[in-house]
Each structure stands twice: as C-alpha cells, then as structure tokens.
Amino acid sequence: MADAPTQDALSEAEASEQKQVRLDKRARMLESGIAPYPLTLPITHTIAEVRAAHAELEDGASTGERAGVAGRIVHLRNTGKLCFASIQSGDGSRIQIMLSLAVVGQEQLDLWKDYVDLGDHIFAAGEIISSRRGELSIMADEWKMASKAVRPLPNLHSELSEETRVRQRYLDLIQRPVARDVVVARAKTNASLRQTFANHEFLEVETPMLQTMHGGAAARPFVTHSNAFDTELFLRIAPELYLKRAVVGGLDRVFEINRNFRNEGADSTHSPEFAMLEAYQAYGDYNSIADLTQELVQNAALAVSGSHVVTWTDGTEFDLGGNWDRVSMYPSLSEAAGVEITPSTPLSELLALAEKVEVEVSHPTHGKLVEELWEHFVKDHLTRPTFVMDFPVETSPLTASHRSIPGVVEKWDLYVRGFELATGYSELIDPVEQRARFVEQAALGAKGDVEAMRVDEEFLTALEHAMPPSGGMGMGIDRLLMAITGLGIRETVLFPLVK
Fold first, then answer.
1. Do 271 and 477 meet the contact criterion of CB atoms below 8 Å apart?
2. What residues does Mg(2+) 2 bind to (predicted)?
C-alpha cells in the first residue's frame, strides 16, 4: 500500500475509506486464523541492541547471527521478489527488515504484501546483515503481525500541524524525535531533582490534592463537590500549607513533586494544570533556599544537556552556570523608572505612574502596583538567571517580614528566559502575624478579589504548635523544562489540556 497523505489533509471520506480497507484486512486475517493482535512474540533483541552490537558492519556483510525484533513500520516498499520495511521502536531506533522470496517463500511473501501497511507493528526474525547500500538489516525468515493499525499514519516526511501535535501527541511521538526527547528530558529532570534533594537529606512526601480550603498561593481554584462528604472541595492551587504542617511535625526537610490546578488563563507560560515542586527546609531562609534552587536547576541542566550551557530548540545557547544575580525589587524598579519608589510611596503616586505607562491592575494595592510596574520596567531587561528579592508585604501573606527593611518581606522570584521560574521565602512562622495576614486577605476577598486567601483555622492551629524558622521554595516543572529546552509550556507537557 502506498504512503498515505498527511492525516491533517485527509477528508472525512478519505479517512473512512482507508480505515475500512484496513478493517477488511483485519477481518480476513481472523478468518484465515492469523492473529492481528497476538499477546506475545518471540522477541530476542531490541532494535537499539542490534544497532549497538553491529554499528561498524561493512556494506553487504553477513554476521551469521540471528535476532528477533519488533517495531512500527514507518517506511514500506514492496517489489516482485523483495520487500523492504523500516521499523521503529519506542526509543526512536530504526532497522530495516528485508523479506526475500528465496528465504521466506511465496506464501509468506504474499501474506506480507496482502496484510501489512504503514503504521502496523510487526515482528521479524532472521540473520543480521548489512545491505549492499550499507543499511543494517534483518534478512527475515519469519514474520508476524504484532498489532494491525486500522488508521493510517500521517506522512512522516511532512510536518504535523500544531493542533494535531497537541491533540494527538502519540502521532507527534511517532513522527518527531524532539517530542520523544522532551519526554526523556522531563524524566531526567525529575530524577535529577530527587537526587539533589536526597544529597541534602530531604524527604519526598505527598499531600492532599482535594482540599476543604484553598490556600498556599494567590490564585483562583477549581471547585468541586464530594458526594461522600456532602461538602465543597477545591483542587489544590499549592501544597504549601500541608508541607508546612509536616515541618511543624518534625519533618525538617521535605519536598513534593505533583500536580497543581489553577482556574486561570492559559498561554505560552501558563496552564490550568501543571507540575509543581515545593520544598521546605527547617532552619533555612530565603538565601539558603536560593542557593539550593540554583543547585537544583543547574544539576537538572547537567542531567539533560551534559552542561550548564543548554541549547534551545531554535539553536540559541543559554548559560545557566555560575552564581546567579540577585537584585532587590524596589531599587531596581526605581532605577528603571527614573523615580524613587519605596515601601512608603503613596498609592496615588503609584496609580499615576501606572496610568502614565498604561499599566492596568485590578483591585490595585501598593504591592500589586509595585509588582506590575516592576514587570513593566525591569523584567524584559533581565538577560541572565536572576533572583529578584524583597517583595511588598501585601502580596506575600505567607512570607516573613524582612529582618532589616520595613515594609517588605523576605521573598524572591527567580526569572529565567523572561519568565518566573521559581519563588522562595523566609517563611512566616508567627501564628499571630499569620492570622492578621489571613484576615487582610479575607477582606480583599470580600471586596471581590477571587485570588485572595481565606482564613485557614486548621493551618493556624498547626502553626500555633511552633514551626521552626524555615526557607521554602516552589518551582514549576513545566517551566524548568522550558528553561532547559527553549520550548513553550504545551510542548513540555506530554498530554496538555486542550479545548
């Protein structure tokens, strides 16, 4: 069967016709007693193993060694007495399968020509050879259908549309090596993060994803209902308040890698569902947790790229090495805006500046305006990984007040590639002050701020039992992959949410 046209371009009638042809083949196989979906096959080698063992085989050479391999057919060419197929394994390795009339006989050759299509998984066994053109091959003396594809593959020589790549990621994985590479990079990144934490004697824990009260971040939650408990529940926006309970309980160094959910917009750096890393270290602060975060990111880059200098998919090199810059929010904003802005700058002056530069803020407060103005004036000019330190107190209700600068808290945001990659705190552990911050948040919520936190009495009860001084951090795993690979967020997620 000839190569099918690009799946994106197939009309509904064409796709239906091709599917029916393959379904007819499946039916004829069953009638003939040939299993189109066997449960097991006598595989002896992976394709990668065969390639590694015979990488230097000369053109036209025979090995006398036999192998049984399996994979998906990604290229198919049938002639009178010789058939060729290229099969691909899950890791992207390929090998050529050759069926010769002289070796398999007329019946098996005819069955191959009759039943086999592009996209099928097949098993083939025979001698390992090199073709006259130098292609490592299996000269098959037997073959079996491993799984009959009843839909055609897209044209592997044409690029899938972005819509198809996202909605049908399995086709993307078959066609584009970079799609598989991102999955491998993500696995290596998570393994590296866990190893770095283990080196620092952190424990990995799990906390609830269904919560009776949302908190731990300023975000709008997804709301659901539990029939069993007849109560409103929230998909968590952050694990922070439960991880801090663990620290109260004496688990001094904890981290979690898991999913968060925020009922907000989606763009190139935001997704309603995302993977998040959070960690808390007793007797640390925002300086020590910044050091740890730099180590985590740099070790992940080494694990994926073999270097702190990573190469993005567009060919750009980005240096994640060295000691990263640390700048303070208020001084850096003052310098960029050309006017002094401090924690005591009146709201009216900030509103006037925001109007002048066309920065809009819903439910404006001093803190929100300072952060939005900072993003307007400073963010896009950061070229290196940078910790932006010392945030307004109003926007950081879970963070300790700065030990020497009134009106700010000991919080940093890490910016890489122009986006926020991580955030870190010296944690607020005073239960009286924490209650006051929650009350302020509740007041904002009463005025219509849907991102404001509620007063969490259970968390406050835990905090009243004394939490040690601690540093905490949170980092998006998807965004970490963005920093290492240069891809957008939907490319770093295996199966992103789409409408």
1. no
2. 420
Q: For the whole model, what pTM was predicted?
A: 0.89
Domains contained in the chain, CATH given: 14-147 (2.40.50.140), 175-324+384-492 (3.30.930.10)
Contact 214, 221 (CB under 8 A): yes
pLDDT, tens digit (0-9, with 9 covering 90-100), for 292-304: 999 999 999 999 9
Q: What is the pLDDT of residue 8?
A: 52
Smallest CA-to-CA distance from 412 within 327, 310, 348, 311 is with 327
Confirm or deny that 413 is annotated as ligand binding.
yes
> What is the sign of the dihedral through the CA atoms of 152, 153, 155 and 159?
positive
Cα 197 off chain centre by: 19
Tell me how far apart the alpha carbons of residues 414 and 404 are, in angstroms, rounded to a whole number. Answer: 22
CA gap 45, 50 in Å, rounded: 7
Whether residue 6 is predicted with pLDDT greater than 50 in this model: the reply is no
Strands (E), 178-219: 203-204, 210-211
pLDDT at 397 over 90: no
For every residue of 364-426, which 3-state class applies, written as one string? Answer: CCHHHHHHHHHHHHCHHHCCCCEEEEEEEHHHCCCECECCCCCCEEEEEEEEECCEEEEEEEE
- CA 92 to CA 307: how far, in whole Å? 24
Burial of 19 by CB count in 10 Å (0-12 exposed, 13-18 middle, 19+ buried)? Answer: middle
| Chain centroid, CA 52 distance in Å | 30
Q: What are the CA-CA distances from residue 189 to residues 41, 324, 463, 483 (Å)? A: 34, 20, 33, 12
* pLDDT level of residue 157 (50, 70, 90 thresholds): confident
Instruction: Write the pLDDT tens digit of every residue in 407-445.
Output: 999 999 999 988 999 999 999 999 999 999 888 888 877
**420 annotated as a binding-site residue:** yes
pLDDT digits (tens, 9 = 90+) for 224-267: 999 999 999 999 999 999 999 999 999 999 999 999 999 987 77
* Strand stretches in 34-81, DSSP E: 62-78
Q: Where are the beta strands (DSSP E) in 108-228?
A: 121-130, 136-147, 203-204, 210-211, 222-226
CA distance 254 to 282: 9
Q: What is the pLDDT of residues 174-209, one digit of tens each?
A: 999 999 999 999 999 999 999 999 999 999 999 999
106-111 long-range contacts, Cβ below 8 Å, gap at least 24?
108/142, 108/143, 109/81, 109/83, 111/34
